[in-house]
Design brief:
single chain, Rossmann fold, ProC C-terminal domain-like fold, binds 1,4-dihydronicotinamide adenine dinucleotide, binds (2S)-3,4-dihydro-2H-pyrrole-2-carboxylic acid, amino-acid biosynthesis, Pyrroline-COOH_reductase, NADP, cytoplasm
């Protein structure tokens, strides 16, 4: 069955998903987008050849509605959409924090809702998208959401109770790695390297480490031990990281991200 999919509120994440779906072979005639600003709608039309419509038109025309506005804008979007969404539409939320019950309470009784937390590597087909169904989502609805998000990377189903933790780990996760690269590039400058060289060294070390983590089947501890020679350089660095509480800082940071996701649950911000 051909399914028309609309991305509503096509900002950074919405565009990443849209571009991935087109790369993955979706016909642009099966895709719709909505945007708040007319210039943005025009930009998306020009860049991808997709039709840009109003939120109400998208609700009528598409079988699957993917809502990618900020959590704080979701209540307003649902107020606008609710009168136009028949109960047989699949509603997919990409927003942090907001539970499926928030949508179910505002849409026609029985509307299936799937919650997905993806991340920006969707732009390079390396997303991690974590998927949970609401109370009316069937196996078919979850499989359809997986089909869409598998096009931009990996997917994983979790109980909805784990979504705030997933948001802290993989949703926000890329930002932590960019932060580390930024900090380590500064260290390279302190050690006398030009910024561009420091950046290239750290980025390639990150890519190499990421591929080994994914493909070697080894535990991260084993991989780190293989780098850490007796009386060598690495152990001096590790001692500093432990001394500065970096492990504890990361645990606290992810806990704070999880807590913020919980706070966003009301859609008020
Ligand atoms: N940026 C990220 O790394 C990730 C973001 N998310 C979630 O994705 C959602 C979007 O985040 P971003 O793409 O970063 O934000 P963004 O601000 O780039 O995109 C949101 C877009 O929605 C539009 N919008 C707001 N209200 C609208 C309405 N009523 N009708 C049509 N368009 C409307 C805005 O103009 C904006 O272009 C958020 O809910 C966030 O929690 C999830 C995973 C990762
Ligand atoms: O920072 C945020 O709220 C969004 C959700 C996960 C990543 N970015």
């Amino acid at each position: 069955m051909t399914q028309k999919v609309a991305v509503l509120g096509t900002g950074k994440i919405g565009e990443a998903l849209l571009s991935g779906m087109i790369r993955g072979g979706w016909a642009t005639s099966d895709l719709l987008v909505t945007a708040r600003r007319p210039e943005r709608a025009e930009e998306l039309r020009g860049r991808y050849g997709v039709e840009a419509v109003t939120n109400a038109e998208a609700a009528k025309a598409a079988d699957t509605l993917i809502l990618t506005v900020k959590p704080q804008d979701m209540g307003k979007l649902l107020d606008e959409l609710a009168p136009h969404v028949p109960a047989d539409r699949l509603v997919v939320s990409g927003a942090a924090g907001i539970p499926t019950s928030f949508f179910e309470e505002r849409l026609s009784p029985g509307t299936p809702v799937v919650r997905v937390m993806t991340n920006t590597p969707a732009l390079v087909d390396e997303a991690m998208s974590v998927i949970s169904g609401g109370s009316h989502a069937t196996e078919d609805h979850l499989a359809h959401a997986e089909e869409i998000f598998n096009g931009v990377g990996k997917t994983l189903r979790v109980p909805e109770s784990q979504q705030d933790a997933a948001t802290a780990l993989s949703g926000s996760g890329p930002a932590y790695f960019y932060f580390l690269v930024e900090a380590m590039t500064d260290a390279g400058i302190l050690l006398g390297l030009p910024r561009d060289k420091a950046h290239d060294l750290i980025v390639q070390a990150a890519i190499g480490a990421a591929v080994m983590l994914r493909d070697s089947g080894e535990h991260p501890v084993r991989l780190r031990e293989a780098v850490t020679s007796p009386a060598g350089t690495t152990i001096n660095a590790i001692r500093e990281l432990e001394g500065h509480g970096v492990r504890a800082a990361l645990i606290a940071a992810l806990e704070a991200a999880r807590d913020r996701s919980r706070e966003l649950a009301s859609g008020q911000g």
